[in-house]
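Hi U.,

Before I forget, here's the chain from the pilot set. I'm dumping it here mostly so it's searchable later in email.
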Amino acid sequence: MKILTVDIGTGTQDIYLYQSGLEIENGFKLVVPSPTMIVFRRLKEATRLGEPVVLTGVTMGGGPSHWAARDHVKAGNALYATPDAARSFDDDLEAVQEIGIQIIGEDQVKSLPSKVSRLTLKDFDFQAIKNALAEFDVTLDDLDAAAVAVFDHGAAPSGYSDRQFRFDYLAERLDPEAQGPGGSILSKLAFKRGEIPGKMTRLRAVEISAGEIDAPLLVMDTAPAAILGATLDPVVKKTLPDHGC
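Structure:
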């Protein structure tokens, strides 16, 4: 069995290829810059050169890329973004426009001059990972499954703080009474392809980006994924109650 697992953080994305028959410590691993850091660096370079930029693609993690986008506009450079790409910075597109980013439709991107640099936003770049491993004669053409973790606070309605929206979402998913027996477990925050709640826009964007993978896909929030992973440690496992996480 071969399973590609990717944990996408703010600074790095940690990639591990599980293969049955190999000891865990012998599995192939990559720790490379996170997608938001890649966008950050490319925007910084465009700012240095004074180039206009258009952001396309899907909703992804913000943070560094958001800071670079803000600085790009402050430096007097044009920055365009399609709606889905713009939501990487804020679910409220009016708030995105207020910092100087111009929201345009997908059809308008084609009409922009060639001097406008194109940046495609996405958290999960399967082709890049596949190409990197191929350099070492490792193929991903025969995957049995893929699992990707990102931090997703969800798409909060206007006037609803992202932080509170996330807390309410976690409470909803982990409420034992709402979920029935065995409901209060962290696996309730993992979703198969086609089962992701609509409000979890970043997880759904990962699902879109993973469309070329012809194997089962699991997406999950990074924090509970890390906790569940820690429970596999034999020392940690001894401290857990019988019902686990």
